Amino acid sequence: MWKTGAALWDLRVTPRCPYLWSLMPMQLCGVTTGVVRVTTVGDVTVIATESLSKRFPRVTALDRLSLDVGPGVTGLVGANGAGKSTMIKILLGLSPASEGRAEVLGLDVATEGAAIRERVGYMPEHDCLPPDVSATEFVVHMARMSGLPPTAARERTADTLRHVGLYEERYRPIGGYSTGMKQRVKLAQALVHDPQLVFLDEPTNGLDPVGRDDMLGLIRRIYTDFGISVLVTSHLLGELERTCDHVVVIDGGKLLRSSSTTDFTQTTATLAVEVTDTDAHPDGTRAVREALHARGVEVLDSQSGLPGAGHILLLTAQGEETYDVVRDVVADLGLGLVRMEQRRHHISEVFTNEDEQRKEAVGHGS
Fold first, then answer.
1. Is there a contact between 48 and 69 (Cβ–Cβ < 8 Å)?
2. How far apart are CA 264 and CA 360, in angstroms?
3. Distance between CA 120 and CA 18 in Å, rounded?
4. Could you tell me the pTM of the whole model?
5. Chain segment 184-238, per-residue pLDDT in tens
6. H-run or E-run covering 104
7. What's the CA gap between 86 and 108, in Å, rounded?
8. Low-confidence ranges of the chain (pLDDT < 70)
9. Between β-strands 60-69 and 73-77, what pairing exists: parallel, antiparallel or unpaired?
């Protein structure tokens, strides 16, 4: 048991509610430490794992995972069951690894879990909020559990709830909140003690498109405005392309790829062209394809375009002259040019390429 001011807390609790563990303060010589600080992480490794594995009797959740994560917003992407939540539990020091080692902010997860949880905020995937208290009461409580004095806890709570957009609703019982508001409360409690790093487990779950965009904007500002690094998990690939500086892709507990978002979405030599239809050319896409083919331009494929337009032609750009050829063809046919742009890779292609490689391996082995 430990004391924070006049409050007495019993830490002999089970980790059913991850909040009780995510913000547990560090103890030195029996004294609970906790200070309000402005934290930034320099150009260092924030998370490092080496041959990290987690095995259960019938499944391997993580399989010899080795990676280095630097400061910024990092996305951990994978399908449901890929091992994302298991990895976060290990990094928080809540679940022991079966093999390998890991460090968070230079601290060993196997022996320094309490110190890690003091410096890290955690937003769990599942709802674990008390319905009969207000957002202010709950976040103040979590700030006190992290070791902040009463006055500092109240001030930090007000600032954090304002940042996540709940200041006007801060005194309402959480039970009457929408899903989006509850997600913001969970985000606020992860930030209130001013951590150096936050783990956000599926923060956009259950949100509508507008709420998802708002949450992604908040996540991005955690780093840009406050210098707090972020590890965010998601199975929605497009979210990570828009939000993250770095993306780690895992599948079946194994690392598929770890690189910057710009490397994932770098431009290709493929040119995307979309045109409108006219009375003279009811199928403008087909007319452009045939005209380009006649001029020796290789057309790769076609995709659905914008409403009211035709389809998107994908063709190989041999150089600047390809743009001139496309412009002349569209003008000669009297069509409207909706777009002409270089295509970019998408993170989803990592999974597509992996599946294709597996099929090819199976085919060669049969």
1. yes
2. 23
3. 13
4. 0.68
5. 999 999 999 999 999 999 999 888 888 998 999 999 999 999 999 999 998 777 7
6. strand 99-104
7. 17
8. 1-43, 265-269, 301-310, 343-366
9. unpaired
